[in-house]
Write a structure and sequence with these properties.
This protein is of the alpha/beta class. Helix content is 42%, strand content 18%. It has two domains: 181 residues, Periplasmic binding protein-like II (D-Maltodextrin-Binding Protein, domain 2); 93 residues, D-Maltodextrin-Binding Protein, domain 2 (3-Layer(aba) Sandwich). The protein is built from twelve helices and ten strands. α9 packs across α10 and α10 crosses α11.
Length: 327
């Protein structure tokens, strides 16, 4: 071995210096964690995720978000069970999947009263009042979904029993709109942006808004796969914190939030602003679950036939990932 000391040439020194930024990028990339996030449907309530992604909120927390939107709650929870989704943004009645053994936990209450749920009918159709819905065909996304619960609860409150409205699971909003326009159904239970879009087109009008259907509820809930909780808990914790930071941005910067929502959901600025006004007040600002709301969800699950008797859903709740926040 030569004892000659190593004296790098200028070219070698420049090459080494050029490599330093690459090494730094590699280290940062290695520190980032991919988190697969699923949405039960692409709706306004979930756009804080998009606002946070656009603002770099999740990136600064070391997360690379891989977002997938599904056509209903059943498909979302199938994906979680299959190991292809880490965190799911869904609805309160989806607790029923957990009670049936889905490998998940509910980690945050995202929104409370069902202000985003509506029944849309044809503007020039035969349905003019709620009473006209008795016995009629009304679409929902999937069985066991928030939309199915809404239809059944409305039927019960009208005195028609659980099956006073003929609820048909048709999947995506696009499929439901097509069925309504071709008179295969008489109405559809959808989220407010779809109902609003139908009104803007001059095709439909919103017959019912579900905001006052129940006194306490959790319309939207964040679920996490048990595998993600076990294998990357800090990523799950970072995501929950990022969600609430993104929610703060949505609430404080209406112009930015509605611009992102309009782009993601293909909304007009007018509709995006209306949805912000209607939906922002329903967000849960702490993520904590209300025992009475859980009881209401348990009752809904029993009434839909998804559970035998009223189940205590509290064992399926995990609030350890929630950041400390004021109300």
């Amino acid at each position: 071995m030569s004892n000659t000391p190593f004296n790098p040439t200028r070219r070698q020194m420049l090459a080494g210096a050029a490599a330093l930024p690459i090494l730094g990028l590699s280290a940062r990339a290695h520190a980032e964690t991919a988190l697969r996030v699923g949405l039960s449907q692409p709706i306004f309530s979930f756009t804080p995720l998009d606002v946070g992604m656009e603002a770099g909120i999740f990136t600064k927390r070391g997360l690379v978000i891989e977002k997938t939107a599904f056509a209903g709650s059943a498909k979302l929870h199938q994906a979680i069970a299959a190991g292809s989704i880490d965190v799911g943004l869904g609805a309160g009645p989806e607790f029923g999947f957990l009670a049936k053994g889905a490998p998940e936990q509910a980690i945050a209450a995202m929104a409370d009263l069902p202000q985003e749920l509506a029944i849309s009918v044809l503007k020039d159709g035969p349905i003019k009042t709620v009473a006209d819905l008795k016995g009629k065909r009304v679409s929902v996304s999937t069985k066991g979904s928030l939309t199915e619960w809404g239809g059944q609860e409305l039927s019960r409150q009208q005195g028609w029993g659980d099956k006073g409205i003929n609820l048909l699971p048709l999947g995506s909003f696009g499929a439901q709109i097509a069925a309504l326009k071709t008179h295969q159904i008489d109405g559809m239970i959808v989220e407010a942006s779809t109902a609003g879009r139908m009104e803007e087109e001059g095709v439909g009008f919103t017959l019912v808004n579900f905001r006052n259907l129940v006194p306490k509820f959790h319309i939207h809930v964040m679920y996490a796969a048990k595998s993600a909780i076990a294998e990357k808990p800090e990523a799950v914790r970072a995501f929950v914190a990022g969600w609430f930071e993104s929610l703060d941005l949505v609430r404080s910067d209406k112009a930015r939030a509605t611009a992102v929502a309009a782009k993601v959901l293909d909304l007009t600025p007018t509709l995006a602003n209306k949805l912000w006004d209607d939906i922002v007040p329903m967000y849960n600002l702490t993520g904590h679950f209300d025992p009475d709301a859980l009881k209401a969800i348990a009752k809904a699950e029993m009434q839909m036939g998804d559970t035998e008797g009223t189940i205590d859903f509290s064992p399926y709740v995990n609030e350890t990932f929630l950041p400390k926040r004021g109300a």
